Batch of 3 targets.
Target 1
Amino acid sequence: AGQTLHGIMKPTLVVAGAAGVALVVSLLRAAKKHGFGSESSESDSARCPFGFSTEPDSETKKGLNARIKEKKQVVTTLYEEYIHLKAVQEVWCNPKTANPYLEPAFCAAMHSIEIGMLLMGTFLQDQRSYVTKRQRIDAVSRCIEHQCILVAELIDSTTSTCHDSTTSTSHDSTTSTSTTSTSAHHLDQTHRQEITSLSQSFPFPNCPPTITHGQGGGRQSASLRYLVAAVSQGYPALCASDQLALRNVVRNMSGAFDAAFSSWSVGLGLEDELNDLRIAVQLLPLQSLTDRRSCLYLDYTAMVRPEVILATLQSESYVHTEDFFFRSVHLSTECWSFVALHQLSSALRFANLGKWYEAAALMRHAALVIEYMGSNISTLGCMNLRDYLRLKVEIEGTSGEGSSQVKELKPAARRMLPPLVHAAYLAAVSGNESSASDVTSDDDAPQLMLLIYRWPEDHGALHDYALALEFLETSILGGFYYRHFSLAVKVIGSQSRGTMNRSVQALKNAYETMLFPCLDAARTLLGQIMDRELLVNKGRIMTEIQRKRERAQTAVSTESERASPPISACSTNADASAAPAPIPATTTCCVVTAVSFPEAIALDASSWQVCQRVDALRQEIFGCTRYDTPQET
């Protein structure tokens, strides 16, 4: 049939062109519908009169996917080059300690702090008269204070968590195979070799490199030196109010450094420069920072290599006034993304070994880091809109969408769920729970999670882990992606498009889709079950509160009746034409009327007790609701 149609329509194709093609296609469809050529063994491409398949072959699909992947890679490469990420990553990938575990994450976190101090220096040197320096400096300084806490928690809590895991067995571990025990022992031995708290005496095995004060131990931050120079030069020219604001910023920032790292037995390496910064704004040096001179300092220069951050400013000429600010905040986000992924990776290892409390602690710290990333990126709201839009036009072609680390946050978080589901299944089987027999696919995971939520006293460690997952989800969706959307709305408007020509409204998808829908389904199921089981108690507490209020009102009314003289109402048999007693003109006349009580009662309402009595009579006789004020009564 196909050959016959092809022979008939060939002249038409030559003459009619596109119209002929359409007609041939319709005729072929009709022939197929009526069964012509249905027994042919030829392929679809052979039956097509033009020799083409209607579906793309595998080679075409591969080529299309390759082009998409190549385009995404170009976006990522441009983004990383734009924010100078490669040079910073070189430091993270080349640690100085013998068995590095925390050093890469520590260096990434300190790079972000270096970026903040460098930004403060550039803000002070900004010559634009229409830009408020105080707003920017305050925003970045608060970020630095927040980061000091995160760094201290990164070192102290992680070493504590790992130390606890080496000295005690996991609570509620649901796997007991010899393979798991061997892996746990290997991980524990690795942590014994690699992780030790910085609060103990130096040196110790596998400790980070250190130097003395005489070797320049207290002055190792290139960005802090830049900030001290900028403050020393710009502080005298500031007005009195700006000087006071800057002095407060320096006091808070130096205090945050001191508080965060005072428990370490080794100096961070910035102590003398922090005191120099205090002196530059006419503050006294902190004695606690000065006392560090008698101990060792971390070899901050060798480990962190802060000159890499300073080079991001000095190695390039910035044409646009908001360019360095924009790049630096994105680079800082990449630093903390690295830390968050590091913590999630460690948490996953503990979860696979059944160490749920340790894994939950690391997940919570990762969540706090991601929350901070949202606060950090929000500082871009301080940019001047006109000046940023001039920059936006020229960076068309890449954006934060090119961040491979930020895009990895959601997949890394989702990988934290399967160990919990598996452990819940084992717990259900061991407890002969009916929910275990109902599990036939991943869609039944909410039934397993329901077991953990409903009986947390029996599954304490798994329940703690589930709560950490909830916190992680909230931090990623609300703490970071929602703030990213809000920033875009604030900076360029809700109906605009970003540098990748993507609408701002499209950013909503990033925070509207849940990471752990099975946890949400389990919470919903538990709510429905509890509502049915406890229906008899519905509203009990509110009902009791209302009864207490009514009893109190009744007691007040009774007390008022005893304290006030009785008030006699006019008899229903009294003469309707009888005039009421005269009332002085200076008093307020309160008249109470009703269909079943036609007589008017005139009362002297100057006394609130009388009004309360009237109110009690109204309630008793007519069932009227009481009023709140004498005037209303």
Target 2
Amino acid sequence: TSTLGVAMAPPSAPSDELLSTILFLINNHYWCALYELYVDARRLNVLDADLPSLNTLKSFFNDSKRFPDGVFRAVNDAFDSGVSAARVVDAESRAAVAEYELRCAREDLQNSRRGAGGVEDGGEDASGASVRRGVDADDAFAPTSGDSARSSADDVGLDAKLDAATYEYLSRRGYKATALSMRDESSTAAKLMEKDFASDGERTFGALRRMYERARMTETTASALESERARVDDVESELIRARARIDELERENTTTTTSRDALSSKLALAESGLSDLKVSAAQWEKKATESASEVNRLLSELGAGNEEWSSRDGNGVPRTTIEENDTIDAVLSFICAIAPKVAPAARKELLPMISRACVRAAGDEKRAARSSNLFFELFKAPNVEQRDAIVDAIANVGEIVGMNAFEGTFIRGCLGSEAVATMNEERRVLVLDAIAKLGASSWFTLNNFVMDGFKRAAVDPSDGVRAECSRAVERYIAANAPSDDNMETIEDVLMTLACDGSDEVADAARATLAPAVASWYLGANPRRFTDVFARKVLDKAAEALRSGWTGEGAEREFKGWVSPEDGDRHRWHATSLVKTFEAFARPIREALSATKPASIADGVDDALSKDVPDSWPFAQWCVKEASDLIVQVISSTAPDVVGQESVRESICAAVASWCGVLGALATRAVLIGKVNDACLVSYDQRRAVMPILLAGVVPYTPDGGAVLGDYIKRLIQQASAESCDEIIDAARYLAAFEQHTANLLDALKRCAHPIAENPPTVRLITARLLAATSEILPLKHVLEHVYPALNVLRADPETSV
């Protein structure tokens, strides 16, 4: 490379060395090196100053004998045939071949230099000036007149010929990899548009030089790849170390988690032990308080019998007890003085102080009574919120001091019957709430005191206290599980309140207490509810109504009561009991759903309409015994007389609720048949039962509205003109129910038309029914429905109608 660089250095005068090198390469057939020299000489603009060298190269490469046109065409065809599969040959192999060729050319050139070095300076040898003169004298190397004009076009053709010749030479010599690389490089060179070398100012390298550059690039790339591979190895090593660190951290985390779980378990055990200790401490504190209260009580009793013991001279009561009693007295006096001056809304803040005074005064009868009375003196008329706060404070005092001390302080004191009798209504309600709260407390054991308090409140002269009694007993049942003996007492309280002369009291009992009692019985003791309690309610209702009836069977008739007062009393009692049973409807329906065996696939309504199995005894009771008891009450309803309408309405409402319990299907399958049979007993009983049948039973069957209209029409068609009073009475009663008015009028209008199925008797009874119901119906219905029906009857062809 250095020799070529010296030979191709651009001299100021023509260089004989360049021409000698060219002739040496031609004579030794180093055509690839010659081509490389030619390209480098053109790139460095050496040939522009050395015309003999330029003409020698052009004449050599333009020789058609040495480089025929067929060779160039074959090479060109090979270039256009596409990318050869040999392009994928390993780059290192091609670079090695190219470097080998280049090294051979360099060695030959160096040998030639050493052979010519023996000539003395200034002499002329075969490769010196004599060679140049020989070339100048040879016409083959002389420049022609058209060379300068064709220089640009010949350059391109000459390059293509040289490329083709180089490719042929490499292929013939067996350098296949180099030949393939040469072909690839020539195709690339052709795309570079190397047409005008004179205007570029810089010429591209030849194929061998580009091959060499690619080999160097491959070597550089290989080095870069090795460096990248080393870096990747370092990264992988770092990754391995990171993964090892992660594993180590995970092991540490697992160890920490295990340690934390162990500590959590120990902490839970410690907290459980602490909770047990707190409970134990509270129990011991409670015992200590009870003991202190008992000591105070004993000291008080002892002081009452021995004045010296209660003295302050150090020989009697201990100084600490005396000082505590003084403190309690001061606190109680302060509360009594400050309470009237505090706003009622803020007086609840004094309850903790009063509670503490009661606790410390337990055992001292005088001070305990004074402190406990403050609960009831704090408010003149406490509201619900204030009552709840006071009741909670009283129960808290009892839990602290214990049952014995509480009994001495409250039960025989402010909560006793004698003290309650002197209180106003609001404070008696407060006492009732306190009793209900105490009855629901686990520490309170005097259940008889609670029952006595309820019975006393049930007969209290104040309506407000009696109404509150129902709500208090309901809260007691909900918070406690009363015994059977207590429930018997609660039954009596319910019966007393439900039959109370005050509507407020009776309604409160039926709205709150009655459902609570029924729900408790059906959940805890359903046999007592079905066999005793519910039967007792319905039997007493039927008994109150039955007292106005005489006879049996077809001879049964209503005679009335001894006096109007007696009749009012029986009617009121029956109405109250029937309404009470109506309050049982919702709990009974819920119990039916809860007790249905899993073996019954049908719903409750469908199952009740079929044969109820023995595995469902409560459903059997509803379908049979309970329905029979209700029919007995219906059969004892008195005819429509003055003062009797309320009884009929209450019975009708209770029967409608019972139809809701059974469902529409069971009402049609069971109840309607029982009530129909009751209509056939006697005339008076028919008059008593038919209004309830039409208003309270028939509409609650499947498609009840249509069934009611057909039922009324059949009754009219089956009646006679002389005995239709019971139908008229039933129609008058049915007209009072707005939800049944449309069905009633529709049936009457259908019976008013003179058609075959409406004989004159039917039309005549229809006219009487229209006249009777017009007294009950609203004016709007009379104008829209009754008058048009009467006009149809007025135009009837039958004179009697």
Target 3
Amino acid sequence: LSKYIFVPSVYGESNFQFDKAGDGICFESSKSNFYHKISAEIVAATKSKRAVIVFFRDRSKLNEFVGTATYRQLGRHKSLLTEDMTPRDKDFVINKAATAGQITLSTAVFGRGTDFFCKDDSVEKNGGVHIIQTFLSEEVSEEVQIQGRTARQGKRGSYQMILLESDLESDFGIKAVEKEQLPKGQWYQWLCNIRVKHQREQCILIEENLKNATEIDGLTHDYFDSLLAGKKAKSKEQFKNLYQLMKKPPVPSSVHIDLALAIDVTGSMAPYAQSTVSTIENLLSGPSSLISKLSTNFPEIDFQLRLGCLCFRDIDDGSGKFTELVLSGGSHFTSHVSTALNFVKRTCSAPSGGFDLAEDIIGAIHRSANWQNGEDWTSDIKFMMLFSDASAHGLLPAPLVNGDNYPTRHPEGLTTNDAVTSLVARDADLFFCSFNPSATKRTEDELSKYFKKHPDNVAEHSVVRIPMVPKESVASSSSAPSGHGRHIIFVLDESGSMSCSWSGVVLAYNQYIAKRRQSQSESDLVSVVQFDDRSRITVQHASLSSAPSNLPYSGGCTSFHPAAKTACELARGTPSTHVPAIVFMSDGVANDAAAAAHEFALLNSNVYRSSRNHLELHVIGFGGGSCQAQLQQIASASQAGKVHSSANTADLASVFVDIASTQNVSLLLESEIAKRITEAV
């Protein structure tokens, strides 16, 4: 396109409102929060006597929302608008969509050309029709059309995007975490740039397909012309060329994979030793292992995995610096998973050494990449997987440089470029599994930089970053070198109204702990405050493995402030190795919600001063008896506060699991390795 023509509206200046730098764009990391946010915005608009139209990408996405408890709590004034309705039913829904208090849930197809004209003066008086779009359109024209369903013909109206981060990743191949590096006012432009990039990629693909189709079409015409002309030899050669052009490359019958494990076993890794072993074990053994899943995806291929193992300490640890798995013939790779796992379990059982803040990351990479036996590094596909919680020597953050015994030069003269050169020579990718991403970031950045600029890296090998701990569990300040776990404090309503549901509450609590253990978060601590009109501590600073599975029930009236005060006291006693997080759950109403919110606000100030992060505060309304206004007041005590809804104990368990959910590192590793192997195949 080289020329654009703009036709001004005959209705004068537009009254359309889209707050691109504020609440007009919202991102949610979990489906429960995504659905709750949609519901909360609907309720806020309809309480103001406005009408709301929510657009979902397709019928399946709409059906997912309709199946939630939050949908059922929206009341009677809601309608669905879908393609399979009769024309009469569609007209009925469309005609009442712009009336006060009306909620219309529609598929995206009705975002083009449907006239939701507002004739209700009360809707217009209170801001007009509010549009919510729950997905990012691939084409800007669709987005503009959806926006055009409000503020029509000079009327007032507003528009908002509520997006699920996993949808952005699956639809556009980007990580929503990228937005955290941008000011909020640039989020919309970031989304637009993503869309433009996606469209360009699609255009390139279409042009390539068109070019191939044109070439095949020409060869087909030439072939038939030769046949009709009786040119047997020529037509035979043309058919062969045509067949070769259209034939897909053969899939290999077998693929051999070398995976070298380089594991930091210095003293600082002690809290993570079991997580490291569990992650490797989940990745390598059992019916859900990497090889099992690859075999399911490629049943015609025989995958053969060989494992190499090196456990390393620091430069000054003498003879204990490196411990390697070496087979009888001198090879470092074994095809027996049990042999490798036994070695890993044995060497990770007693972490020790490492007497400064940096570790010999570069030495470990260089040594394992330079195993020289004739059987080493001979497979078709090669990876190295490194586990550590520390920076490489010479790459500590500036405030901590005095904690590095070798800040300027490795005793053996090794450099980051040497390590990368060794990996490039082996044609291997590096998976950097970090138990403290803030401490290892500079090391990962340096390794990535040298991969990108290495003249021999024609295969574009790279560093794949795998955070082994939850993002929120890591201190954002570079002055805190050690990884931080969660100290999760449950504040659970055990008043009389909870008597029939208490067993479900305990089940949800146990599912939270199980989920955290599954995500390799063994260093977490758990505390529990139970309350009616008083509060009591039933679990205090327990590890996940020692947390009790049963919580005794009491019963009584409901007061929030005593429980909030007790929870904040527990939070202030959180060890320096952890960060507090609050999960507050109630099914009732109390007259001291403001006092409870004040307690959490004071705690948030303390947390922010020490970590520059706001308090993680989850407030859950259970059943239909809770007061959303009071819960929102409590959640507002922290900028990171969130309100969740749960209609029953099943919903509550789902909310608890969502809160507990972090990236399951075993699945993440499987996904990343499988992606690289798939590309190679």
